[in-house]
Amino acid sequence: MADLITVDDPDDPRLSDYTGLTDVELRRKREPAEGLFIAEGEKVIRRARVAGYEMRSMLLSSKWVDVMRDVIEDVPAPVYAVSPELAERVTGYHVHRGALASMQRKPLPDAESVLRDARRVAIMESVNDHTNTGAIFRSAAALGMDAVLLSPDCADPLYRRSVKVSMGAVFSVPYARLESWPRGLEAVRDAGFKILALTPDEKATTIDDAAPHRLERVALMLGAEGDGLSTQALMAADEWVRIPMAHGVDSLNVGAAAAVAFYAVTSGRPGL
After folding, report:
1. Contact 48, 67 (CB under 8 A)
2. pLDDT tens digit string along 183-234?
3. Given Cys at both, which of 100, 102, 124, 140 links 145, Cβ 3.0 to 4.6 Å?
4. How many domains does the chain fold into?
């Protein structure tokens, strides 16, 4: 059973995992280096535990102690009970959900091991907005994608905002970070995947005509909001595909486009 510890000093060193959560650059550097990430909210914390992540500690406002009582009784990590005001001073923002947990990261698998048993894979190039990253992972989990691969410069899926937006779906979909780009795509092709590049370019085949759901193994590449896929990524693809647009709209937000394309990729797949 965890120790329930009341803390009233925002500078208490035991709360160091939770300091400055709104400082994106600081947390982006610090969290992977220290092997931690922050789970926010009851559902996300529970999903992280179900996914096998070890809890380092938990930070709760008083009204959440009873809600999380079963977790408190089940983990050996310390649980810090604080006032909402103190939580805000420590983290830098109002913690609406009243519950935070510092979790231990797992070693990230390599691309080859992630691809081994996969048939439907999403590949993200330079998607560095944490909201979009979380939305893409949530759609990937919900619509039956088997894995996600990230270019070296993609945002961290375990950053607090990504985890929150995904509602913990980042714990459900295996992912790996490619070590080089676009050379790392060779491993995808060597594993038997046809690589499709999602682009609004009119020269691209409509995703319905491409019929990706009929392919044995398919990898769908998505680019960053605004810029889309780089020239190098487009040249490395086997085929360009697009989502037909109407009413003069030229493209969708990458999170929305991912959901539409994932459905096209997985529709009719056995077991779904």
Report:
1. no
2. 999 999 999 999 999 999 999 999 999 999 999 999 999 999 888 999 999 9
3. 140
4. 2
Contact between residue 182 and residue 232 where contact means Cβ atoms under 8 Å apart? yes
Q: Is 87 helix (H, G, I), strand (E, B) or coil?
A: helix
Q: Are residues 143 and 83 in the same domain?
A: no
Considering the domain architecture, whether residues 73 and 143 belong to the same structural domain is answered as no
* E strands in the chain: 4-6, 36-40, 55-61, 79-82, 99-104, 120-124, 147-150, 175-177, 194-198, 205-206, 218-222, 239-242
- Which residues form the domain of 70? 2-102
Domain of 69: which CATH number?
A: 3.30.1330.30
Among 63, 87, 102, give the residue marking a domain's end: 102
The last residue of one of the domains, among 102, 137, 165, is: 102
Rounded Cα distance between 108 and 97, Å, is 28
How do residues 115-126 score in pLDDT, each as one tens digit? 999 999 999 999
8 A C-beta contact, residue 121 and residue 221: no
**Residue 102 carries which side chain, given as an amino acid letter?**
S
Verify that 240 and 121 share a domain, yes or no. yes
Q: In this structure, which amino acid lies at residue 51? A: A
Predicted pLDDT at 2: 66
pTM of the model: 0.93
Q: CA-to-CA distance for 250 and 228, rounded, in angstroms? A: 12
Confidence tier at 268 by pLDDT (50, 70, 90): low
Banded model confidence at residue 173, pLDDT cuts 50, 70, 90: very high
Residue 108: both structure tokens together: 């990230």
Supply the DSSP symbol for 132: H
